[in-house]
Amino acid sequence: MEGILPLWKEKGMTSHDCVFKLRKILGMKRIGHTGTLDPSVEGVLPICLGQATKVAEYVTDAGKEYIATVSIGASTETEDADGAVVESDETFKRVTREELLTVLQRLTGEITQIPPMYSAVKVNGKRLYEYARKGIEVERPSRKVHIYEIELLDDADFFEGEELQFSIRIACGKGTYIRTLSVQIGEQLGYPAHMKNLVRTASGNFVQQDCMTLAEVVERKENGQLNNFIRPLEDALIDFTFVPLEEDLYDKIMNGQVLPQHKLLLQNDVIVFTHKDKAVAIYRNHPTKEGLMKPEKMFPVNR
């Protein structure tokens, strides 16, 4: 079985749990996920099968879309609803729609984030959550992330009370922490805040409507229909330029040779060579030899 299985990860499971269960369901070992989702988060988790594990990094690096519920009035140690409250403000609050939209606009584009202590980012060889569990605070490197769009999903003219809640849809680039974005929204409004709930509705080219739960995977496998729902690995590469393989280059590309730079690599970081509409190799500019290109990924099964 080759390709990408668009899985809907349910709450209470880790991404590794999903891979472990699918290995048993499908009876195969070569399976990989495309970026972790916290156990409390549900949503789109493309699973790569067989040769498609080679393209997992491209799905991981692609844009994502989320729907989050933001809570204004308390911050937590994990920046989401799972952590202990570290600061609260129980005063009566009133925020107009215009004020909130202004804040969301201010946080759209390239912004700076500091990863939460309870995250998998590595500092000095250890993941931040390892320090956090021991009560050790370490300096965290800031990072630039890109927020393409934030849409306010609630239509109220104002939000008021001791705790304010509203839902937003976020389209963002890789490395964005929606928990941290929720805290940043609160900071802009002048209050502690955290992310109360999160659903990932898209990962790269894979959307919620494409996905199956683990139970549906089992059902479709038993009915012999599962292959109809497996997406080709080429779907993970749609952001790249596809180049039909010319006959004079066929053997050289198939053997993964270093070759003179293809003209399309003057405008692209990578190109995908195809044969009969199937990806057979990904090439990029050679990092040390000007004017040459080298293979990054090969897909011999697609010959």
UniProtKB/TrEMBL annotation:
One example GO MF annotation: tRNA pseudouridine(55) synthase activity
Record keywords, A-Z: Isomerase, tRNA processing
Reactions it catalyzes: uridine(55) in tRNA = pseudouridine(55) in tRNA
Keyword tRNA processing applies: yes
EC number, UniProt record: 5.4.99.25
HAMAP family: TruB_bact
Residue numbers annotated as active site: 38 (nucleophile)
Every Pseudouridine synthase II N-terminal domain range: 23-178
Pfam families to which the protein is assigned, alphabetical: TruB_C_2, TruB_N
Domain tRNA pseudouridylate synthase B C-terminal: start-end pairs: 179-237
Protein known as: tRNA pseudouridine synthase B
SUPFAM superfamilies (alphabetical): Pseudouridine synthase
Task performed by this protein: Responsible for synthesis of pseudouridine from uracil-55 in the psi GC loop of transfer RNAs.
Upper taxonomic lineage: Bacteria, Bacillati, Bacillota, Bacilli, Bacillales
GN (gene name): truB
